[in-house]
Specification:
By secondary structure, this protein is an alpha/beta fold. It has a single domain, classed as 3-Layer(aba) Sandwich (Rossmann fold). Helix content is about 30%, strand content about 20%. The chain has eight helices and ten strands. β9 (about 205-210), α7 and β10 form a beta-alpha-beta unit. α1 crosses α2. Belongs to the glucosamine/galactosamine-6-phosphate isomerase family. It is an enzyme of class 3 (hydrolase). Homohexamer.
């Protein structure tokens, strides 16, 4: 029998939420005791939310508390048609903000190639690589204000796999700040893992911070599963942890907050 446990961890602010998440990842890797014939597999997000968590993980590594030598990572998504070395590509984001500061083998850091000649074949190969790695032990994700996880926009199938997605106008507008506010520079398509891909992970941790994500958090945990709020699918995952700050709880019922704090 599968026991579904959904946890909501509420911290006072963004920094404490980031630190809690980083400690959790660190402990998971250490407890797993990875080695040459046993890699820990970690799913990773991009965006502004995980930056604090990555900073902490780098700190743990530099202090000698954590090694990524036997860790394989799989990123959630990548833009289509953006050169890999473009400052806003997710390749650049991951290397600049995380990978180049730790001891991961570059061959073990998997990011979808948005410039592949056959995009669907690239997505299928990514799913195959995850399977060959033994599946994902811990998938870390962030969400958009509309409750989307990775680029699984509202209306995405909750059993979807890695695929090519056309981005919603809301997402393009939200991402314009990274492209000098120029909408014409924002990619309109992306490659993304599916909701089903993330659901397959043995454990999922979702980071939700800031008042602008409060309604999405409410939809994620207080209402039913709904493909218009793709993050709500994780209510049904056997091991989900939502990590948030106080600002993100503004739309939750008082008794919900009290229950999870207790």
């Amino acid at each position: 029998m599968c026991i579904t446990i959904m946890r909501l961890v509420i911290l006072d602010n963004y920094d404490l939420a980031s630190e809690w998440a980083a400690k959790y990842i660190c402990n998971r890797i250490i407890q797993f005791r990875p080695g040459q014939d046993r890699y820990f597999t970690l799913g990773l997000p991009t965006g502004s939310t995980p930056l604090g968590c990555y900073k902490k993980l780098i700190e743990y590594h530099k202090n000698g508390d954590l090694s990524f030598k036997y860790v394989k990572t799989f990123n959630m998504d990548e833009y289509v048609g953006l050169p890999r070395n473009h400052p806003e590509s997710y390749h650049s984001y991951m290397w600049n903000n995380f990978f180049k500061h730790i001891d991961i083998d570059p061959n073990n850091a998997h990011i979808l190639d948005g410039n592949a000649t056959d995009l669907q074949a690239e997505c299928d190969a990514f799913e195959k690589k995850i399977k060959e790695a033994g599946g994902i032990d811990l998938f870390v994700g962030g969400i958009g204000p509309d409750g989307h996880i990775a680029f699984n926009e509202p209306g995405s199938s909750l059993v979807s796999r890695t695929r090519v997605k056309t981005l919603a106008m809301d997402t393009i507008l939200a991402n314009a700040k990274y492209f000098d506010g120029d909408l014409s520079k924002v990619p309109t398509m992306a490659l993304t893992v599916g909701v089903g891909t993330v659901m397959d992970a043995r454990e999922v941790m979702i980071l939700i911070t800031g008042a602008h994500k409060a309604f999405a958090l409410y939809k994620a945990i207080e209402e039913g599963v709904n493909h218009m709020w793709t993050v709500s699918a994780f209510q049904q995952h056997p091991r989900t942890i939502f990590v948030c700050d106080e600002d993100a709880t503004l739309e939750l019922r008082v008794k919900t907050v009290k229950y999870f704090k207790g």
